Amino acid sequence: MSTYRRTTTALLLASSVLALLMGCSDGKRHWNGKDISGVMPDLAFTLRDVDGQTVQPDDTAGQVRVLFFGYTSCPDVCPTTLAYLHKVIEKMPADTRDDITALFVSVDPRRDTPERLGRYVAHFDSHIVGLTGPEDALRELAKRYRTTFGYGDPDSDGNYAVSHSSAIYVFDGKGRIRLLLKQDMPQQQAADDLAQLVRQDLS
């Protein structure tokens, strides 16, 4: 076989393989976190921010929203998760960071006053917003995303623990559920996911 024919055959074979691979592709984007698009409802709540003002998802429309439940007296999961989110946001490209809002929803409204919640989130990152509200509204929101929370018995000083989910929910700029992240995920992988969502919204 001539060199020309061998080259032509190789090119045809390569083209066929490429076409086969393209045909097998489902067209979906690659995500490092768990893709839960369409599995849960769109983002919806009516809560209060650290200034005591009523907040709804429309107030941050167009932003990629990251939702995490917790409370300021949490000894471990909450501070480590918020520190993780700070580092993730830092690793995002500079031109995408301002299109991210992290919503830290306190499920301990008895202790987490707006002032206390404001001081707490300010310690971590300016992109993190503290929210809380009446217990019934918080339970409704938790149930909406298939989780719950509970209060332990108070000690002699009145202190108590709050059990809650450690899941990190990610919604796109239209408020649609997209991803579920965990803080044991490499920070750069989470940053890549958030940046991809931002750019997808802007495209």
Can you tell me about this structure?
- This protein is α+β, with helices and mostly antiparallel strands and 203 residues long.
- It has one domain: Glutaredoxin, CATH 3.40.30.
- It is 35% helix and 18% strand.
- The chain is built from 5 helices and 10 strands; from the N terminus they run H-E-E-E-E-H-E-H-E-H-E-E-E-E-H.
- The protein has helices at residues 3-24, 77-91, 114-122, 135-144, 187-202; strands at 34-35, 47-48, 54-55, 64-70, 100-106, 128-131, 150-151, 162-163, 168-171, 177-181.
- Strands 1-10-9-4-5-6 form a 6-stranded mixed β-sheet. It has a two-stranded antiparallel sheet with strand order 2-3.
- Strand 5, helix 3 (114-122) and strand 6 form a beta-alpha-beta unit.
- Helix 2 (77-91) packs across helix 5 (187-202).
- It is globular, with a radius of gyration of 22 Å.
- It starts with a helix and ends with a helix.
- Mean pLDDT is 88; it is low at 2-27.
What keywords describe this structure?
two-stranded antiparallel sheet; alpha+beta; six-stranded mixed beta sheet; Glutaredoxin; 203 residues
Low-confidence stretches: 2-27
Tell me the domain tally: 1
- Work out the oligomeric state of the chains in this entry: single chain
CATH architecture: 3-Layer(aba) Sandwich
Pfam family, one: SCO1-SenC
Protein name: SCO family protein
Signal peptide: 1-19
Domain Thioredoxin: 34-203
List the helices and strands and how they pair.
Blueprint: H1 3-24, E1 34-35, E2 47-48, E3 54-55, E4 64-70, H2 77-91, E5 100-106, H3 114-122, E6 128-131, H4 135-144, E7 150-151, E8 162-163, E9 168-171, E10 177-181, H5 187-202
Parallel strand pairs: 4-5, 5-6
Antiparallel strand pairs: 1-10, 2-3, 4-9, 7-8, 9-10
Helix pairs in contact: 2-5
